[in-house]
Amino acid sequence: MAASLPQKQGMAGMPPQQQPHLPPNTASAQGQQPMPPQGALREISPVFLCRIGQETVQDIVTRTMEIFQITRATQLPNGVTQSQAMYQDRFGKLQEHLRQLALLFRKLRLLYERCVEMTSDLQEGPAELVPYVGEELVSVRVEPCSPAVNQERKEVLEKVRQKNQEMKVLMDQMRNLLWDVNAMLTLRK
């Protein structure tokens, strides 16, 4: 019972001193599942790729917000001289953020293409699910319902018609009341 736990070995049994340095923004540092090796990418589901795509979009939004914050903090050159070091520092940060954004967009494009490739055998494409403005809607085949469902639908439609009629009567009454109030106010002046 008093057996000691073996010391953790790093990547592929390498001692911790010889492990490659991973950037702090990797999935393992965020407590998420690390990316599988390249050979296992063929067995990844489209859902997993979409989740990675969602995280990539969140990273893009974060980087974009940081770019806006940097540009908001930058003063316009209206006769005030800024130090050259501060200018170079901000310029370097902007360049790094833009480079990272370009990489994230490339990653997102690859994820998109891989998802499209994996889901090409699905029956409905995205264009059929969300119509564009001006396109004619493709009629959807509706299976016949039971008589009880049809009767309930008719009852609900009748209740909606009655409520709409009541609302119309109330709106007409409110319009007439406001008309009378406005007429009295104009006569009072």
What does this structure look like?
This protein is mainly α. Among the domains are: 41-121; 158-189. It is 58% helix and 0% strand. The protein is built from four helices and no strands. The protein has helices at 46-73, 84-118, 126-129, 147-188. Helix 1 packs antiparallel against helix 2 (84-118). Mean pLDDT is 75; it is low at 1-32.
Short description:
The protein has helices at residues 46-73, 84-118, 126-129, 147-188.
List its salient traits:
189 residues, mainly alpha, disordered N terminus, Mediator_Med30_met, transcription regulation
Work out the strand percent. Answer: under 5%
Unreliable residue runs? 1-32
Query: Secondary-structure element order, as H and E?
Result: HHHH
What is the radius of gyration computed over CA atoms, rounded to a whole number of angstroms? 31 Å
- Cα distance spanning the termini: 96 Å
Number of helices, where a helix is a run of at least 4 consecutive DSSP H or I residues: 4
Beta strands, count:
0
What's the rounded overall pLDDT mean?
A: 75
Q: Please outline the major beta sheet.
A: none
| Overall spatial form | flat
